[in-house]
Each structure stands twice: as C-alpha cells, then as structure tokens.
Amino acid sequence: MRNRSLLILTTVVTTGALTLTACGSRDDSSGDGDTDKTTTVVIGLDAPLTGSLSALGQGIKNSVELAARTANKDKVVPGVEFKVESFDDQAVPASGQANAVKLVGMKDVLGVVGPLNSGVAQSMQGEFGRANLVQISPANTNPSLSQGDKWGSGDKKRPFKTYFRTATTDVIQGKFAAQYLFNEAKKKKVYVVDDKQTYGAGLAAIFAEEFKRLGGTVAGTDNVTVKETDFSGTADKVKASGADSVFFGGQYPEGGLLSDQVKKAGANIPTMGGDALYDPAFIKASGQSNDGDLATSVGYPIEQLSTAKKFIDDYKAAGFKDPYAAYGGYSYDAAWAIIQAVKTVVDANDGKVPSDARAKVTEAVSQVSFDGVTGKVAFDEYGDTTNKQLTVYTVKNGAWTSIKSSTFED
C-alpha cells in the first residue's frame, strides 16, 4: 500500500444539498504522481440551528462558513482546503454531547467552533478534551468552563486545555451590567430573575453580588422555566416588591415575555439582561413597548469597528439568508484562530498535516495572536479571550441602540 494514493472523500453539508467531493489524495509514496495535491481539513460547527435560538445559531454557522471560504480563496494554508461540518444541538446539552462524539470520530476534524450555550458546552468539553480536539466558543460566558467550579473563591483551575472562547466571561459581563444599572441608570432596587440554566443562573448571581456591593438592594429573586410562556406570577412579585428594575439571567425568548408581562402587571420599569437578550427577537417576543429595556453584550458594536468592515461587506456579498447576529464576528474570529493554528502546524511540518495534528493545533491555538473582526484575538492561560470590551444597549423606537462601550477594568 505504500506506493498507492488514498483518495479522500469528504461529505460536505451545504444548504439544500448533500455533496460528495473528491478532495485530492494523501500520498506517502515518492512516485511521479500529481504534485498538486490538496488535503482537506474540517472545521466542526455546533450551534442551535433550529428552534427558538436558531437566529443566533445560523449567524454563527454562516460566519464560520465565510471564514473557511475566505481561507480557501486566499490560499491561507497552501495545500489545505477547509470544509465546515455543521451540527444542530437545538440548545440541548445531550444533543451537544452526541454531536461532540460524532465530531471526535471524524478524523479530518482538527477544530470545532461552538457551542452557543454554556450548558451545552459543559456536556461537550470532556469529549473534546479526551480527543485533544480544540474547541473555541464564540458565545459561552460561564466562568467555570475555563476556570473551574471553584473560580469564585479564587481557586482557578483550567478543566480542559482544549477549551477556548472569543467571548468574555460573565465575571466581566455581570459586574459591568451591575455597574451600569447602579451608577449610570441610577437604579437602586432590582428584582433578579433567572432561567435556572448554567448561563442564566451564573450571570444573575454575579450581577446580584456586584449590585449589592455597590450599595444597591435586591428586592427579590425568582426563577422561570425555559420554553414556558406564562410568567405572570413572577411579574406580580416584581410589581409587589417595589423594584425599580428587573435583571434577567436567561435567553431572549423568555426575556422578551418576562419584560412584556412585568409591564402588563403595572410595573413600568426596565428589564436588563446579558448578551443573550441582545437580539431583535427579544423585542418581537413582547407585545408591550420594550423602549428603555437594556442588555449588555460582549465587544463593541461590530458595525462601528473598522476591523469589521470587510467581514460585513463579505457577509452581505455571500448572500446568506440569515444575519450574522450577535456572535457573527466572534464566530469568524474563532474559526480564523483555528485556521491560523493549522497554518502554524502545517508550516512547521514541511507543508503537510502531521499525524498528531489535533494535539499540535490545540497548542498552536493557545499561541495565536492576530487582528480579527472583533479586534485583537488572543487567549490567556485559561483559554479566555484577552478582549474585555463590552457594550450596553437599550431599546429605542423598537430597535437596539448602543449607549455605552468600554473596556472593563475590575
């Protein structure tokens, strides 16, 4: 078999079609064959591509696709063609874990972008860690994913060297939100609600602790259940508490309904949340005017970044049906970090993908540093982004509008 080339057939999932593509050959012979061979490297993608959070998931998927297309067009890694294999987790941890097992089993996958949800990430980390397969999330914000369960006491231990993220953590976001609501929005008595999920409960707890540290009062706390629609009981508690604001740790489908029902209960006060509220679907979920509601989101508004202009133009030119949404730029940068890591590994191996490529790509990702769509892309010792820029948005005339962007200083 030494003098025979092995034809690699890669299944590529594209919109509306399943395509079987011959991607060249891997050849360990020294014979006189085709000298223009291409090796396929697959970037895995996991996100909620259907269901209530699909608006975010599709933006993530499209942005990763765009990064792969750009790398191929510009021949960023000579001899390597990048493909994207996308998996739908529907924001369900068990589905995410099953997807992780499938991705690990695909030998051409050298990196994975995703998932959206922190709870889904918890179910995937171990699978990727055992396989030395790098994972970069554009949206996870729960601190324990990178710093361990005891991060709150200062005992930070990275659980998996394969886990990275381009979004900043809730340690940053929760404090930033509390400081804005107390110091600048001048709200002193907040009612805190969460959806009992990893992301929502974690963000709400960090927010509440900082709000109290600043001198504010938490008027009460409550939980809602994901995919339920009647939050009138919670809304009545908010009204009775005399709170001047609500902080919701959760996603936009429930957040929009909560805001709506709080106002219907007679409490004309703003609802604030994290990056998972920052989506037009939050506004659409409410029958009442959302004007004055607030959300924080990671990074600066992408439309205002000079570094994002090409990404925005290329995304429009690509003709994707769905917008890049809140995490498009961070998804592109996550994919580009994997592409740059593959380039480093291939360049160091005489232009070939080595047999232990997964481990080498993971190590190379920890060292990447480049100017990306969202600004400088690099990772600290925990795999967290070094970019600590955040923005506060408010709903004005039925649309999200940025009102403050800054680099967080603890």
Your description of this structure?
The chain has 410 residues and is α/β, with parallel strands linked by helices. The protein has helices at residues 54-73, 93-105, 118-130, 144-147, 170-184, 198-213, 232-241, 252-264, 280-284, 309-318, 328-347, 357-365; strands at 6-14, 17-26, 39-47, 80-88, 109-113, 135-137, 163-165, 189-194, 217-223, 245-249, 271-273, 294-298, 370-372, 375-377, 389-396, 399-407. The longest helix is centred in the N-terminal third of the chain and has 20 residues, at 54-73. The chain starts with 5 loop residues before the first strand and ends with a strand.
Query: Nearest-angstrom radius of gyration?
Result: 22 Å
Coarse shape: elongated
Helix content: 25-40%
Would you count the extended β strands for me? 16
Q: Order of strands across the widest beta sheet? A: 9-8-10-11-12-15-16
Taking pLDDT < 50 over at least 5 consecutive residues as the criterion, the unreliable ranges are 1-35
What fraction strand? 15-25%
Helix-strand pattern: EEEHEHEHEHEHEHEHEHEHEHHHEEEE
Helical segment count: 12
